[in-house]
Design goal:
Blueprint (H helix, E strand, L loop, with lengths): L12 H11 L16 H15 L5 H8 L3 H8 L5 H22 L8 H16 L9 H16 L2 H27 L5 H11 L2 H12 L5 H4 L2 H29 L6 H8 L4 H26 L5 H21 L3 H4 L39
Helix pairs in contact: 2-4, 2-5, 3-5, 4-5, 4-15, 5-7, 5-10, 6-7, 6-8, 8-9, 8-10, 10-15, 12-14, 12-15, 13-14
Length: about 375
């Protein structure tokens, strides 16, 4: 019998255990070497001190969940060779982004009222864009302005503006997500993938690679179809992995209204277990194309572009490793537990390796790239 994963009634512990046991997602296929920045622990300590100083957490419980994102471990895997201070700036935004996402995108008043979310998000975005602070900024806008000031000190103007544009795209994607939720609309697969390329936050996360690594990719390369395709595929792979990582957690909180599984179940008859398998196949198809295109493209890129594309690969692997162990996804109580160190079993081969025919993403397989 299909599970109604988007229903609003709370799940009993027995129901949650039954559903979680029935998921049994296959091991992830990810033939990319693992790497982590050696400054990760030091950056984590500095970032937690900044969180306390910034004051955007509403209470100790919210602070505990923000710290439980292990954002320093997360981004240290994206930029394993970055200097400590540039890495710290990126990590601060990741902590901020998770806090903002939890408080204003996935839960609370703004998450279900588009007319309230859009002006709030525009004010937050403006705090990132302008070089001067404003007394009207709320705690989230103030903290984001501080992160922007750090970026301005270390990044080239074009790198910073690329991040600003990516950040705007993220908030636009979240607006689409909230509009769907408010209207009770479940997107189809193509619309979901299009929305998730922005709403997952992957675009600003990967845009920080240039800032963290201190290498500016020439516009002719960064704006080329091949680098756009690689970037979008990295975002899509990570977003689908995050849907997988967060599913049990969202089921326990009854927040699973829009994810790859609810999308698949809304359009096809079948069980949640079958949707989990179909989603894993979809993810592997995208990753396999990324791996092939990356291998074919790297030899003809500049050193800065090669570093960026390597960062995309590090991000896919790092996001997968982080998501399989982070308390944000593994904890089931009202407060987060400790991070696990259980060895991860990786799949030796993909579940599927055929091109996608969805018009929005089929161009990733274009032979002209």
């Amino acid at each position: 019998m299909p599970y109604e994963v988007g229903a609003s009634a709370p799940l009993s512990p027995a129901d949650l255990a039954r559903i979680t046991d029935d998921l049994r997602p296959p091991p992830l296929f990810c033939p990319i070497d693992s790497a982590i920045n050696p400054a990760a622990r030091r950056v984590e300590r500095r970032a937690i001190a900044w969180i306390d100083e910034a004051g955007f957490c509403a209470d100790p419980r919210e602070r505990a969940w923000v710290i439980a994102t292990r954002s320093a471990d997360f981004y240290a895997r994206f930029a394993p060779h970055a200097g400590e201070d540039p890495l710290l700036s990126a990590v601060l935004w990741v902590y901020w982004g998770f806090a903002f996402d939890d408080a204003r995108c996935d839960a609370g008043h703004f998450s279900s009222h588009l007319a309230a979310f859009v002006p709030m998000a525009a004010r937050v975005q403006r705090a990132l864009e302008r070089p001067c602070p404003s007394e009207a900024d709320d705690a989230y806008a103030q903290a984001l302005h501080d992160v922007a000031a750090r970026f301005r000190r270390t990044a080239a103007p074009v790198q910073f503006q690329r991040f600003v544009s990516a950040h705007r795209a993220w908030l636009a994607g979240v607006s689409w997500q909230i509009a769907n939720q408010e209207a009770g609309v479940m997107p189809g697969l193509e619309d979901y993938l299009t929305m998730r390329l922005h709403s997952a936050g992957g675009e600003p996360t990967f845009a920080m690679l240039e800032i963290a690594n201190g290498l500016e990719v020439p516009a002719a390369e960064m704006d080329s179809p091949v680098l756009r395709a690689l970037t979008e595929m990295a975002i899509a792979t990570a977003a689908l992995d995050n849907d997988r990582h967060s599913l049990a957690k969202e089921l326990s909180r009854r927040q699973a209204d829009q994810n790859i599984y609810t999308v698949l179940l809304s359009r096809h008859t079948g069980s949640l277990a079958e949707a989990v398998h179909a989603a894993a196949c979809l993810r592997d198809r995208i990753l396999c194309r990324f791996l092939r295109l990356r291998e074919a493209t790297l030899p003809r890129l500049s050193s800065a572009a090669r570093c960026y594309v390597d960062g995309l690969a590090h991000g896919i692997r790092g996001n997968a490793e982080w998501g399989l162990r982070v308390p944000r996804y593994l904890s089931r109580g009202s407060v987060p537990g400790e991070a696990g160190e259980t060895p991860i079993t990786w799949a030796e081969r993909p579940l599927d390796d055929t091109p996608l025919s969805l018009p929005a993403v089929a161009w990733w397989w274009d032979r002209a790239l």
